[in-house]
Amino acid sequence: MTELKKTPPVLKLEDVAVAYKVRGGEIEAVQHVSFEINRGETLGIVGESGCGKSTLAWAVLNFLGNNGYVKRGSIKFQGQELVGVTGENLRRLRGDQIAMVYQDPMQALNPSMRLGDQMSEVLTVHRGMKKTEAEQRCMEMLDRVYMPDAANVMKRYPHQISGGQQQRVVIAMALLNDPALLIMDEPTTALDVTVEAAVLDLIADLRREFDTAIMYITHNLGVVARVSTRVAVMYAGELVERATVEEIYKNPRHPYTQGLIRCVPKLGADKARSVLYPIRGRVPPPNNRPVGCVFSPRCAFIQERCRDQRPQLRQLPDGSWVRCHFAEKIDPSSWTPYDEIKTPENLQRDLAGEPILEVKDLKKYYEVRGSSLKDVIGLGEKRYVKAVENASFQLTRGTTLGVVGESGCGKSTLIKTIIGLEDTTSGEAHFLGFDITNSIKDRDRSLIQELQMVFQNPDSTMNPSYTVGQQISRPMQHFKTVPKDQIRAEVIKLLDAMRLGANYYNRLPRQLSGGEKQRVGIARALASHPDLVLCDEPVSALDVSVQAAILNLLLEIQQEYNTTLVFIAHDLSVVRFFSDQVAVMYLGQVMEIGPAEDIYAPPYHPYSEALLSAVPIPDPTVKQKYIRLEGSVPSAINPPDGCRFHTRCPRRNLLPDGGKICETEIPPWREISAEHRIFCHLPIEILRDFAPVVTQSTEEI
Amino acid sequence: MAVKTILQPISQPSRLQKMWQSTSIIFESRVATVGMAMVLFWVILAFLSLFWTPYDPNASDFLQNQGPSVQNWLGTDHLGRDILSRLMQGTQVILLKTRLPGDGGISIPGGVAIWGVIGSLSLGAILGLNAGYRGGWWDQVIMQVLDALIAFPQIVLYLVVIAALGQGDLVVILAITITGAPGVARLARSLAMDIKTRDYIRAAETRGESVWYIMFWEILPNARGPLLVDGMLRVGYAIFAIGTLGFLGIGLPPPDPDWGNMVNEARRNIFSNQLAVIWPALAISTLVIGLNLFADGLREEMTRYQK
Amino acid sequence: MARFIIRSIISTIVTMFLVSAALFFLIEVGSGDITVKILGVFSTPEQRASYRAQLGLDASAWQRYVDWLFGNDWRAERKVGYPLVTAVNPQTGEADWWADVDGELTRWQLDEGILMTLIRHEDGSATSHLSSGAWKTNTAGSEYFWGVDTKNNAVMWVRGEGAEVWALTKAGLRKEGDGPKQYIPLRKGLLRGDPGISLQYGRPVAVTLIARIRNTLVLAGVAFAIIMPLALFVGILAGINEGKPLDRIISITSLGFTATPEFVTGIFLILIFGIWLKVLPAVAIFTSADAIFQDPKLLALPVLTLTAVELGYVARMTRASMVEVMDSAYIRTAIIKGMPKSRVVFRHAIRNALMAPITIIMLHVNWLIGGLVVVEVIFGYPGLGYYIYKSAIFGDFNAVEAAAMVTVAIAIITRLLGDLAYTLLNPRIRYS
Amino acid sequence: MKKPVITKYDMEKIHPAIPDAYQKFEEGRISRREFLRFSTLLGMSAAAAQFLAACSTPTEEAAPVEEAAPTGGIKRGGTWTSSMQLQLLDHPARLSWVEGANIVRQICEYLTQTGTDNITRPYLLEKWEASDDVKTWDLYLRQGIKFNNGDELSADDVLFTFGEWLNPDVGSSMLGLMSYLSGMQDVEKVDDYHVKLHLQFGDIAVPEHLFHYPAVVLHRDFEGDIIKQPVGTGAFTLEEYAEGERAVFKRREDYWQLGEDGDPLPYLDELIYVSTDKDAGVAALQSGQVDALYDPRPTDFQALQGVEGLRITPASTAQCLLGRMRVDLEPWDDVRVRNALKMCQDRAKILQLAYFGEGDLSLDAHVAPVHPEYCEKDIPAYDPEGAKALLEEYAAEKGIELPLKVTLATKNDQAEPEIAQALKELAAPAGFEIELDITEPAGYWDRWTEVDLGITSWTHRPLATMVLPLAYTKEAIGAWNETRWTDDEFEEILREAQGTLDVEARRALMCKIEDIMQERGPIFNSFWKSVWNVTNEKFQNIKAHPTAYDLLYDVWKDE
C-alpha cells in the first residue's frame, strides 16, 4: 500500500450482511464484513468451504438469486452505493466496470456459442462497438493473456479448447472492458498445477498492467500467498483477520489463521520431521452459529468472554485487523496440540525391507474407436490410449509409495490395474508373490481381501442407502474374516480406531461431514485387514483442516497395522509429507522414482523440476525457481515418440543439437542411487547441476 | 418411500419417527401435497367401494340418463345405473384388483395399472441396470432392443398385443409392461451409468462383489427415488392408456365398469346427458393430474435436497 | 459428426429389422387361426389346412417372415423355372404375376385335369391355349407341374394316381383328384413395397395404405406445425418466468390439458363446434379422396384435439429445459457480463434450452401417433391410425403389420431427424 | 316409375285364388295389406292389385300406399351423401351384409321388390305367375331395359345369374334359400323374356327370394368382382369404391324408369357413401355433413330426434336381437332351464332400456307381427318366481346349487349389451348368475354359432316361412342353426306352411309353430326392433325400408 488514497477505494464494504430466505426463516450467510480494495491491489479472501466467500462475491454483483439479499451494510463501488442498484444501472456495471471469473470455465462458457461471439458481445453491448472492431479487440486481448493462435480460438466452441485455455478466455473476456474491479472466485481450483501456475502468473501480470483491483477468492493458502497483496481470512460468514500477505503468513493473529497454517504441510516437510495439526470440530452451519466468537468452539485459547461476547474486527497497532478478544495476548508458540491428536512417532521407514508389491514393465492400453467410416464398421486401424507405459517399481511392506502427476498422467489407471479393476495389457505384477496381472474377477477372494482401496470423493465414497455399520461390516461378511456374531463388535472397534465412536454405527452417510465419510471409507478399506491399501487422492477434496486429520489417521493406521500404502495425490506438498518413496508420472510414463526426500532435491527430472516450481507455497517468503511448461499435455492416443515429455521439456536444449535424440529415442533410466532413478536423456552430471527449486531466503531444503 | 431428508445429527430415531421423516418430505412441497390429496381421494374411494357403493353399480334401478339428484349424486347412465357407484367400482380394477382369467372369478390384489407399472419397473430396471452398469456389448444389445420397442407408438403396440392375445386384465398388464419397460430401462440405465462412477461402486468392485450384487444392492437402492417417481408418473400414463383402450372398446373386459368405456357409452347419449361423459373423464384427469403433481413435487423436493 | 450419422443410420436399420421381427412373430404367436375367421367355424380341419396353404400359411414362420420382408418370387422362380414378373392388369390397375416364358407372359390354369396356358397380350388381355407344359413325375408316381395360376400364386398342380387335393374355390373347398397341391402366394415383400393382400378388404394393402399415410401425414404435419412453435413459445415463456403467476397459469393449464384424454376433448369439440355452433365440420367426412385439400376445415377439430393433448406435454418439457438452462453457470456468466435480459434469453438460453426438448419431442412423435389413432377413430378420419385400429380388430395381420411398420418407420425417422437436429444445435457433437 | 296401368292381360290370367282373397278382404277378414301381398304373390301386377284394393270399400283403415304420391313438383340434380361402413365387396351373389347390398343396389337391380309395406311386387319382371301348387313359376321380364354397358337385359342374364346362385363354387346364400331348385336344369329359358322355374317342392316365397339382398341380376359376362366390373341395370354408375373409405355414384342417363317429368330417372346427380363408424356418422348427420345415416342405432335415434332439418321415419320390422341357447349343451339341453330364462324377461322393461321403447313386444318365437302369417298371442309376463321354481326343480334333479352360473356372450353392437345387462339383473332373482362376455362384433361373429348362450342379431325377412327354415331345421345344422334345436313336429308344420298360400290357413299353422317355440324352443326374444330412416328433410320420396335398403332411384332433393 504504497499509493496515497487520493481516490476512493474501488470497492469498499462496510458491515455487510447477506441473508438467504429459506423455508421457515432466514439464514445470514455472511455478516459483519468490511474491507476495501484499491486500484492495482489484490485482496485474497481465504477460508474453508461454507465460510461465505462466494456469497460475498455475488453480493458485490447483486446476484444473489431470488431468495438472497444484502441485509445490512453498504457496498460502495468507486464511491457509488451498490446495494439497491437494480435493472439497467446494475446491468451497465456488470461486465463493464465489474467483471467476474469463476471456478469452472467449462460451465461458465456457453457450450453452443462460438468463443469469439461470447467475447465480442461484451464490447458490442457495453461499448456499442461494431462487430469487426470488437473481434479485433478480442483477439488482442487473447494475445495479451498469452493465448496461442487467438484468431483460431475465436472461431471455436468451448469444448474444443483445453481447460487452461478456457480459463484464459474467461479472463480475457473479463478484462475486455478494462474493469475497475475483477472478482475471481477460485479461478484455478479445477486446473492442474502447472496450468494453475501459468494462470496465476497471468493474473499477477494483469494486475500490474491494468492496474485493476482484484478480489481473489480461494481456499488454497499457497495460491493466496502467490497472488495477493493483502489477505482477508473468513470464517463462518465473518471476516476474522485482514492484513498484508507477508504479515498473515509471518505473524498470523487470529487463532483460526494460525490453525489453518499449521495444518498444511510445507513443501519439503515430511512426516518424520514434522506434524500436521488439524483444527478440531467443524465449521458451524449458518443457522447454528455460537453466540459469542464464532470460532470459540474450536479455539485452543478459549476464554469465558469468547463464549458470550462477540468480538469486533479491530485494528492492531501493526496495522492488521483481527476479530479476536485476545489477539495481542496469544502467542502462537505457546500453542500445544489437543490431547486427542496423537502425533505419530517413529515414522522413518526402511525401504530395503521385504517387497510386498513388485511391478515390472507394466503396460495398460485402451483401444479407441476412430470416427471414420472404416472405424465405425470395424475395419479401421486399431488405436490405443497408452495410459500406462512400462511402469516398474517395488514396494516394501509398511512403506508408502506416493504417485504424483497431473490429470491424465495415468496414476489412477496404474492403481486400477494393480487392484484389478482393469486388466493388464502386458508386463508383470506380483503382490505377495501372486501374479496380479489378471482382473479382479479371476482373483482369489483371499487375495482380493489383502488389496483394498480408499477413494477420493467423500460424497461418493459411501453408498447413501446404507448405514455406516452396514457398509463397514459388508467386507467382513464378504470375506468372512470375522464370525457373524462378532461383526458388530469389530465394526465398533474400527469406528473407535477412526475416532468416530459406536454411535456412528446407525448413521446414514448424509448425516456425516466430509471428513467423517472419508474416515468411514478408510474403515471399510481396513475392515478386511488388507496388506496393501491404495489411496486415490484421499484428501484432495477435503478442507485443509480436515485433510490434516485424515493424513494423521492414515499414518497412525499404517503404524499400527504395518499396512503398505500407495498414495496418489496431485498436491506435491502432501505427497512429500506422506510418502517414503515417490514416483512422478507424465503421460503414462514414470519419469522419476525414488525416496521422497531425493525427489524434492536435485538431481531432478526436468518434469519434476517444473512441477515443483509450479506448486503454490503458503509462504510468501519462499523463492521458487521460475520454470513454466509450454503448451498443453499431448493426447495419450498418440503420445510423442522418444521421450514423452520432449514436446514441453524446458531442459532439452542442454543436450547437443537441441535434444534431437529426445524426439526419437526412448530415454534411459539414470540410476542416481539404488532407489532413485530418472528417466531422461540428460546425463546424471547435468541433472545433478540443477539448482534447488525452492529456496527460503537463507535456508535450503 | 424413497425420499431422503437431511437431518441434523440425531440419536437413534424410532421406527415411527423414521417413517414420519420419510413422508414429511411430501408435505414440504405444496405441489406434492395437493397431488397426494387428489390421489388419496381416489384410493380411499377405491377401498370404500370394496365394502360400499351407494347402489349396485351394475343394476339398472333408476330412470335412464338423469342428471345429478339427491338420490343419484352424479346422475344415472343410459341404462339407469348410478354413475357414482360405477365410478367408484371403476377404481378397483385400475388400482386394487386384477381379475385372473378363468371361471373362478378370482382376483389378486393390486390393480391393472399398478401391476403394469410394477412390471415395467422390474423389467426396465433389470434391463437398464445391465445396460448401464455392464456397458459395452450388453449395453449395445439391450439398447438396440429397447430402441426397437420404443419405436412402436404405444397405442399401436397395445393394439397389436391385444389383437394378438385378446382382451383381459393380464393382457393389459402385459401391454403396459412392454410399453413402459423401455422408458424405465432408459432411466435406469442413465442412473446406473451415473451411479457406477461413484466411488462406493469402485469399493464394491475392489471387494470382488458379483455383478448382480453391485447392480441390485449397490446401485438399485440409490436409483430407487427417481425410479419410483417415474413409476408414479407411469401409473398416470397407464390409467390414461387403460381409459383410451376402454374408449376404443378393447380395454378391460366387463362386468366391472371401465372409465374409458363409460365415456364411450355416455358419448352416444351425450345429447341427453353431457355430465355422464364428464364424470369419468374428470375421474381420469384428476387421478392423472394428482399423480403428476405428486411425482413432480417429490422430484423437485428430492433434487432440492440433493443440492 | 459423420460417425454419429452413420451410427444412427445403422442403428435405425437394425432397429427396423428388430421391430419387423418382433411384430411379425408377436402377431404370429398371438393371433389365432385366421382361416377360422374367414371360412367360418363350420369348416373342417382339412379345409382350413388347405386354405392355410393357399394363404401360404403352411410354410414355417421363419420362411414366411423372409417372404413377408423380401418377397418370395425369387424362391418361386426356382420351382417354376422361369423368371416371374408383374404386369399391371388394366382392368383393376393392380399388378398381376406372370411367368416370362421366352418373352411371353404366361399363366396356367387346370381345367378338368387339362392344363391350359394363358398368354398375355400387350393390351392386358390374355388368350388360352392347350398347354404344352411338361408334367414331371414325383416319387409317389403322380405327375406334377409348377406354374403361375390366375390368382397370383405359384402353384404345384398334381394329377394322376394317388393325387388327392382340396381344390380351392372362391367360396369353399372341394376334394378333387387333380388340382393344385402347393402354393406360394407371390409377393414382392415389404422391402420392395408390397405388404401383401388385406384379409379384410381383399385388395393390396399398399393401395389403401398410401392414401391413408398421406392423410395422416397431412393431419400430423399440420398439428405438428401448430403444436411445436406454440408449445416452445409457451414453454419458454413459462421457463423464463419461473415461479411467477404466468408460469403457474401456463403450467397448470398445460397439465390440465395433458391429463384430459383426447377422446374427451374430441367429443366435446365435436359437440360444441360441430353440432351446437355448426361452425366447423364435426367429423372428417371425405366425400372425395382429396377432401382435406378441397375443404381444409375438415382438419380443424382433429388438429385442435391433438393440439390440446400434445401442447401441454411439449410445453412442460420446454419449460423444464428452459428453467434448467436459466439456472446454469453460463447464463449466470451472461448476466454477470451485463447482457440485457432479452439477449440472455434469445442468444444464450434458447438454443441450449431447445436441445433437450427437440430430442424428446422427436421421441414423442410415436406418442403423437398414439394420439392420432384415437383422434382418427373419433373423427372418422381415414388415416393410418384408424386403419390400424380397424385392421387390428379384424385380425387383418397383413394390414396391421404393414401399417405398424409404417408408424414405426415414421417414429424412427423422426427420431433420426431429432438426433440430427440435436447435432446441429449442439456444437459439441457437431465438432467431434 | 311408370304410372300403374291395369292391362287386360293382368285381368285375364288372374289366379283363381285371387277372387277368393278379394272376398275375404272385402269382408274385412284380411287386411288390405294382406290382400295386396296375397294377390301380388300370385302374379297379379302390383298396379292391378292396388287398383282392385282401391275399388273396394275397405273395412280397415287404409294402409299406406307404397309409392307415396310426391307432393309438389320434383326437382332434378343434387348430391346425396350417406354414412355407412364399406367393406370388402366382390361377387354380389355372395353378399352377406346389407351395407354391401346398398352399394350394389345402386348399380344392379332385382327382379322383384318388396316395398316398405312388406309387399313384394315385380320390378325387372313385368309379372310372375305361379302354378296352383306353387311349384312352377313363370317369370316375365320387362323388355327394353338396358345395362349400363349398353347391352339389353334378357333371359340369358337371368339364367346366368341363377347359375351363379346355384353354383356351389360361388358360395351364394341364395343356394340355400332356393333349395327348391336342384340345379340349372330346374331353370328353363322359354324365350328371351320368359324364364320358367320348376321347383322341387312348392314354396310361396319365390318373389321375396328374388328380392333377397344378394339376388341382383348380373350381366351375362360377369366375372366375379362387381367393383372391377360394375355393370348393371341400375339408375347409377359406380365411379369409385374404396373399402373403408367411400363409394361414389353418378347418375345414369339412359335408365329404364321414367320420372314424373317424363325424363329418365334418377333425379339425383350423385350419391356418395362415406365409410365411418356410427358415432362419427351421427355427428356428421347432426352437423349437416351427410344427409343420411345407414341403420341408426336406438341411441343414435335418440340423439337425432329433434335435430332440425332431419326427417325421421320409423318402420316396424322383423329384426330382432335374439337370445339363443345351445340345446346340445348343458344346462340348455333341459327345457326347464330354457323356459326359466324365457320367463326372466320383463319385455317392456328390456325394450325400454335397450331400445327406448321403439319396437314391438315379442313372443319367444321367431315370428314377428309384421309377418302376414303372424298369429297374435299374449305377451308372456315377467315371472321370476315361476322361473325360480323351474330352476330349483332342475337343480334338485342335477344335485347342483343355485345360483346357476351361465355365461352370456354377445357383441357390443346395437343394443345387445343393454339387453344382456338388463337380463342379468332380471334373471338374478330367479337363480341365474349370468356372466357377460361382450366383445366387438367381429369377435362375436367368429363364434356366434358356437357359444352356448348368446344374443345374435337377426335381420328382417318378409315372411316367417323364410326365416324359420334357416335356423330351426335339421338341414340348417352346420349352417345357421346356431341352437342345434330340431323338432319333428315343428318341421312338419313348417313345411306345410311353406306350401300354403292362404294366409289364414298359414296363420293357423303359425299359431302352432309359435306355441311349439314358446313351449320348447331354443330362443327368447323380448322385442322386434323398429328401424328409422333418418334423412335430411330436403330429400323427398325417401322410403323407410324395414331392412334399411336405400332405394334412391326416384328420390329428389328440394334445394
Strand and helix map with partners:
The complex is a heterotetramer of chains A (701), B (307), C (432) and D (559).
Chain A: E1 11-22, E2 25-37, E3 42-46, H1 53-60, E4 68-77, E5 80-81, H2 87-93, E6 98-102, H3 105-108, H4 115-127, H5 131-144, H6 150-155, H7 163-175, E7 181-185, H8 193-210, E8 213-218, H9 221-227, E9 230-235, E10 238-244, H10 245-250, H11 255-263, H12 304-308, E11 314-315, E12 321-322, E13 355-368, H13 373-376, E14 383-396, E15 400-404, H14 411-419, E16 426-431, E17 434-435, H15 445-448, E18 451-454, H16 458-461, H17 468-479, H18 487-497, H19 514-526, E19 532-536, H20 544-561, E20 564-568, H21 572-578, E21 581-586, E22 589-595, H22 596-599, H23 606-614, E23 622-624, H24 660-664, E24 669-671, E25 677-679, H25 684-689, E26 694-696
Chain B: H1 15-28, H2 30-51, H3 83-96, E1 97-99, E2 107-109, H4 112-134, H5 136-151, H6 154-165, H7 169-195, H8 199-206, H9 211-247, H10 259-268, H11 275-306
Antiparallel strand pairs in B: 1-2
Helix pairs in contact in B: 2-3, 2-11, 4-5, 4-7, 4-9, 5-7, 6-7, 7-9, 8-9, 9-10, 9-11, 10-11
Chain D: H1 8-12, H2 17-27, H3 32-41, H4 46-55, E1 79-83, H5 98-107, E2 112-114, E3 120-122, E4 125-130, E5 136-141, H6 155-166, H7 174-177, E6 187-191, E7 194-198, H8 206-209, E8 236-242, E9 246-251, E10 270-274, H9 278-286, E11 292-293, H10 298-304, E12 310-325, H11 335-343, H12 347-355, E13 359-361, H13 384-398, E14 404-411, H14 416-427, E15 432-439, H15 441-445, E16 453-458, H16 464-471, H17 488-498, H18 503-520, E17 523-524, E18 527-536, E19 539-540, E20 556-557
Parallel strand pairs in D: 1-10, 1-11, 14-15
Antiparallel strand pairs in D: 2-3, 4-5, 5-7, 6-7, 8-9, 9-10, 11-18, 12-16, 12-17, 12-18, 13-18, 19-20
Can you offer a commentary on this structure?
The complex is a heterotetramer of chains A (701), B (307), C (432) and D (559). Helix content of chain A is 31%, strand content 22%. Chain A is built from 25 helices and 26 strands. In chain A, helix 20 (544-561) links the parallel strand 19 (532-536) and strand 20. Mean pLDDT of chain A is 85; it is low at 1-5. Chain B has a domain at 112-306: MetI-like fold (Orthogonal Bundle). Chain B has a two-stranded antiparallel sheet. In chain B, helix 9 runs parallel beside helix 10 (259-268). Chain C has 432 residues and is α+β, with helices and mostly antiparallel strands. The longest helix of chain C is centred in the middle third of the chain and has 36 residues, at 205-240. Chain C starts with a helix and ends with a helix. The model of chain D is unreliable at 1-14 and 54-69 (pLDDT under 50). In chain D, strands 1, 8, 9, 10, 11, 12, 13, 16, 17 and 18 form a ten-stranded mixed sheet that branches. Helix content of chain D is 30%, strand content 20%. In chain D, helix 2 (17-27) runs antiparallel to helix 3 (32-41), helix 11 (335-343) runs antiparallel to helix 13 and helix 16 packs antiparallel against helix 17 (488-498). The longest helix of chain D has 18 residues, at 503-520.
